[in-house]
Amino acid sequence: QQQVKQSPQSLIVQKGGIPIINCAYENTAFDYFPWYQQFPGKGPALLIAIRPDVSEKKEGRFTISFNKSAKQFSLHIMDSQPGDSATYFCAASDTNAGKSTFGDGTTLTVKP
Amino acid sequence: NAGVTQTPKFRVLKTGQSMTLLCAQDMNHEYMYWYRQDPGMGLRLIHYSVGEGTTAKGEVPDGYNVSRLKKQNFLLGLESAAPSQTSVYFCASSYARLADYGYTFGSGTRLTVV
Question: How far is B87 from B84, CA to CA, in rounded Å?
């Protein structure tokens, strides 16, 4: 039973493009939705996160869109750069239980 | 600013051997977690702890044990290693208010069981 489904598995865009990564969840107990960025050989690092009481959050070139009724959320990267090439994980957290469930990850390649 | 430190970084075990992975955090975080990362399968929760002296099972706890005797340390043990436990193991920690800052991850332990 996969509680958080992430797509696509991999994504290739040109520099300046806008990659979009999508996630869907099932458990309505989830109340915090972070995205993590992971570079090869490193641990994931928190990139941006959203609470379900807002529909969009923007930090620099990164935007989360959240649709509570559809139980879906997505990450948009504006003006993507080669340095954004990494694996991106969405997660859904149940803050009362103190734990998070992760999607399977999306490997993003931004070509110069 | 050390954050979350995992030791060792790499290890090769023979089937049936035992080992302990150590995670240490210096941020006074209440919660600590052990995840394993396998290709195409994301991060799966093995065990976690919401405070010193407490532990709980995650999605894939079989074959692993944990202990949290001190707030800053979370140990993951493999009693009898199997090839299926070949993976990259990540420790993470967080404040009790998880949504404040999310998780802080260590840099991982790459374990190979032959």
Answer: 8
| B58 vs A contacts (CB less than 8 Å) | 99
- What's the helix, strand, coil split of chain A in %, to 5? 5, 55, 40
- Note if the bond before A44 is cis, omega within 30 degrees: no
Compute chain A's Rg from CA coordinates: 13
Q: Which residue type is seen at B100?
A: D
Query: Which of A32, A42, A101 is facing B98, going by the closest CB pair?
Result: A32
Interface test with B, best of A99, A104, A107 (most B CBs within 10 A): A99
Q: Are B24 and B30 in contact (CB under 8 A)?
A: no
Residues sharing a CB contact under 8 Å with residue A105, sequence separation 6 or more, in sequence order: A6, A9, A38, A87, A88, A89, B40, B42
| Residues in chain A closer than 8 A to B103 (CB atoms) | 34, 36, 44, 46, 100
Comparing CB atoms, the residue among A6, A42, A46 nearest residue B102 is A46
Tokens representing residue B62 in the block: 């079989």
Tell me: pLDDT of A95 over 60: yes
One-letter amino acid at A18 equals I
Q: And the tokens for A90?
A: 């969405």
Residues B47 and B55 sit within 8 Å (Cβ to Cβ):
yes
**pLDDT attached to residue A2:** 62
What digits encode the pLDDT tens for the residues B62-76? 999 999 999 999 999
